[in-house]
């Protein structure tokens, strides 16, 4: 039964509509995910619930349901499928495909199994991930949607032996149309509340500029780099005390602009094919259509190079998954914490309100800029 004091404390065995609660898989500030079962059709699924009492700006489920209904109608591949949706007096819910580890948790688990310091994949696996996830984003963009929160935690592999090589796109709560039904691109809005992850969002998104297809692709590249080398140049970006969230956004944006202007810094430790990928991205404008075909071709060259060198085309998790206990195979499915601007408690009392623009930064040299954003070590690499 439901616990009104804790709307997410749903006991195993409770039935909601036709879905029997099996166990809780994870939870965040505004929602939780459960493994559920349809005993009539003998299938498992994932139920995502969201409190009905939260403020409208934090409600994501309605958007997710609308997007997933359209993706299902257009038969988009490699996106989690919507099975059902509805509400109770306490929460809204939707039921979707049950998937396995997301790429972030999978990289962490493989690193621990293989005693690796960095959570990263082999080059062949990284190239495969790049092609598969790019194809999925291309299909999403063809449906005139932007994801706006592309990151490793929002891609997951299948949970059955038959689909371990399939990578699914998750979490459509921040998705938005970028064009009208006739294909005419929307004009950019003057200012947009930040949506996404500070680590993987584009500099434009961090500076609260309207996003377009290019921003999804930049987040995709940052995701790919992270899964290839185990980190991003700004992964350990230091923040000064009394720094507001908006000021943090600006510091991340400054670091990313600096790194994207210097590919040798952003792509340190990456295969040469990533340089070609990046060359197709640096000139993208708001209305630009990314050259998905050329980017995909560059990654395929990397796979062909590895095969020619005698490398076995084996995904790293295909063998590693045998070492991971089955009891853990469906945990950490979704990033449940809200990806919108965090609650005001993250802003020190003496700081300006979150809606205030960041203070203007005085003109500085590139070296001073690097020091300001806490990436002095990056400057030493490229000096």
Automatic annotation (TrEMBL):
Residues 344-370 are annotated as: Disordered. The keyword Kinase applies. SUPFAM superfamilies: Protein kinase-like (PK-like). Keywords: ATP-binding, Kinase, Nucleotide-binding, Transferase. One of its GO terms (molecular function) is ATP binding. Residues 19-303 form the Protein kinase domain. This is Tau-tubulin kinase 1. It comes from Trichuris trichiura (Whipworm). The lineage of its organism: Eukaryota, Metazoa, Ecdysozoa, Nematoda, Enoplea.
